[in-house]
């Protein structure tokens, strides 16, 4: 029984994680890390089962913080959310009761929390926890669909030993208060960690918790396993680009064509930095590398397409991922702990207009790209009106085109037509195969001009490239 955590199936990984952001190669690191933490346990009384984590469902969520000089009224925020495909909202900081109330009776689930300053008080005894639950949960539930309570944010790395030692007692007291209210099975209790709890996370197969946190983390995970609550962690993917500001790193971050990165310990190849959840700043402060409106638009838009494809991760292909995007609005009064651009992760402006089309509006949700079919007539009409994405005619090497093929086919599109026996296998050249899958990705990603970039190796044409039985679907008609 002591090896329960060590032998986690890969398919359980996305059910264990319920993060707020994402980091390169992080998904697989965490399962290795948990195996490390629990691998030394040798008796059944200390064993941990993660079967309760299997109940979570795939969704796209968003974080909402209120450290801003100007924010929409709660009712306006709710009206905005109703126009999107956002399924869950995490309220950052101490539970904002006006937002909890405003989000009643709509099809959105809520994550609320205790601020770090409240932890010691709630840990002091059952009366304090009951008071918190009675004021922040009971007046609004079930009209407001509260599903998780987070006890603090990045507590273990706060260096405040009093708060650190109070976190588990506070979680236990909140859990007991929920049990008393008959909500213990309906609302889960957890805490949120920073990436600093890991001493190593790249490559993923070498992931390990920081030794100074192992005992505390073990106790927290035992509590969470017993109650089926999710593991939550904050990580900022663009920080990897800041530390390695090369075009290839940026392409890796933004889900754009790249040569991939291989974990040398298990030979698993990664074609993008996202394998759980994330956000990207929309503007730059202090000449910081990476933040920009174009990068945010590319990252979030490609992220959402990646999630909707259900392509999964290199370790768990085809598995759905649970995702919160950071964040709904800019927080201009927030003091950045990770980046000077931390104030500008917003998807929307304070007047609720979007900074860019992220793909979250219900009207912009892209349908699944249909598989190519053989037409009745093998030759397309010469006057077909449309747009197609194809390689530029000159100066593009086969190596670059092969990278485009690898990238496009890793994003969940159907590349079977370019395989042997497929309608587009002949002519069997890299250029021909690249043209087909680049166009298919262009359709899949949203049919926007920036979806036909491929590191400046692609162009949009009005000439239909279909031939014989190989049909290129048009971007517009």
From TrEMBL:
User: Which InterPro entries does UniProt cross-reference here?
Assistant: GH, Glyco_hydro_17, Glyco_hydro_17_plant, X8
Which family is this sequence assigned to?
A: Belongs to the glycosyl hydrolase 17 family.
- Entry's Pfam families? Glyco_hydro_17 (PF00332), X8 (PF07983)
All residue ranges annotated as the X8 domain in the record: 387-472
Q: Where is this region: Disordered?
A: 359-384
Q: What is this protein called?
A: O-Glycosyl hydrolase family 17 protein
Q: Does the keyword Signal apply?
A: yes
Record-linked PANTHER family: GLUCAN ENDO-1,3-BETA-GLUCOSIDASE BG1-RELATED-RELATED
* Record's keyword terms, sorted: Disulfide bond, Glycosidase, Hydrolase, Signal
Tell me which domain of life the UniProt entry assigns to the organism this sequence originates from. Eukaryota
Cite the GO molecular-function annotations of the record. hydrolase activity, acting on glycosyl bonds
Q: Which Gene3D superfamilies match?
A: 1.20.58.1040, Glycosidases
Pro residues: compositionally biased ranges:
369-381
């Amino acid at each position: 029984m002591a090896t329960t955590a060590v032998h986690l199936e890969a398919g359980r990984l996305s059910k264990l994680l319920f993060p707020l952001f994402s980091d390169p190669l992080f998904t697989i690191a965490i399962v290795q890390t948990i195996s490390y933490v629990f691998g030394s346990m040798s008796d059944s009384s200390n064993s941990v089962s993660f079967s309760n984590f299997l109940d979570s469902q795939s969704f796209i969520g968003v974080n909402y913080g209120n450290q801003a000089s100007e924010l929409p009224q709660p009712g306006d925020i709710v009206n905005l959310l109703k126009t999107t495909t956002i399924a869950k909202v995490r309220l950052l900081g101490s539970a904002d009761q006006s937002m909890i109330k405003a989000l009643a009776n709509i099809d959105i689930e809520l994550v609320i929390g205790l601020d770090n300053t409240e932890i010691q008080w709630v840990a002091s005894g059952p009366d304090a926890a009951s008071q918190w639950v009675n004021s922040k949960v009971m007046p609004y539930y079930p009209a407001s669909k509260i599903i998780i309570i987070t006890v603090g944010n990045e507590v273990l790395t706060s260096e405040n030993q009093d708060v650190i030692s109070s976190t588990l007692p506070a979680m236990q007291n909140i859990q007991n208060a929920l049990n008393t209210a008959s909500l213990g099975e309906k609302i889960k209790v957890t805490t949120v960690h920073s990436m600093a709890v890991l001493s190593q996370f790249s490559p993923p197969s070498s992931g390990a918790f920081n030794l100074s946190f192992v005992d505390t983390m073990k106790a927290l995970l035992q509590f969470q396993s017993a109650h089926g609550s999710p593991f939550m962690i904050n990580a900022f993917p663009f920080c990897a680009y800041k530390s390695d500001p090369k075009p290839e790193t940026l392409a890796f971050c933004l889900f754009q064509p790249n040569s991939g990165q291989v974990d040398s310990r298990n030979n698993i190849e990664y074609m993008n930095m996202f394998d759980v959840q994330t956000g990207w700043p929309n503007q730059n402060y202090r000449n910081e590398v990476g933040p920009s409106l174009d990068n945010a638009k590319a990252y979030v838009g490609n992220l959402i397409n990646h999630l909707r494809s259900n392509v999964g991760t290199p370790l768990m292909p085809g598995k759905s991922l649970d995702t919160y995007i950071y964040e709904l609005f800019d927080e201009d009064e927030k003091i950045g702990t990770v980046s000077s651009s931390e104030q500008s992760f917003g998807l929307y402006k304070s007047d609720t207009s979007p900074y860019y089309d992220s793909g979250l509006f219900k009207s912009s949700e892209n349908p699944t790209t249909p598989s190519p079919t053989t037409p009745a007539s093998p030759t397309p009409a010469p006057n077909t009106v449309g747009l197609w994405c194809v390689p530029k005619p000159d100066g593009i090497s086969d190596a670059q085109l092969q990278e485009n093929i690898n990238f496009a086919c890793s994003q969940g599109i159907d590349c079977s037509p370019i395989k042997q026996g497929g309608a587009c296998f002949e002519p069997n050249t890299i250029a021909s195969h690249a043209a087909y899958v680049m166009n298919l990705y262009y359709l899949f990603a949203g049919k926007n001009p920036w979806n036909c970039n491929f590191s400046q190796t692609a162009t949009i044409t009005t000439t239909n490239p279909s031939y014989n039985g190989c049909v290129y679907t048009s971007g517009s008609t």
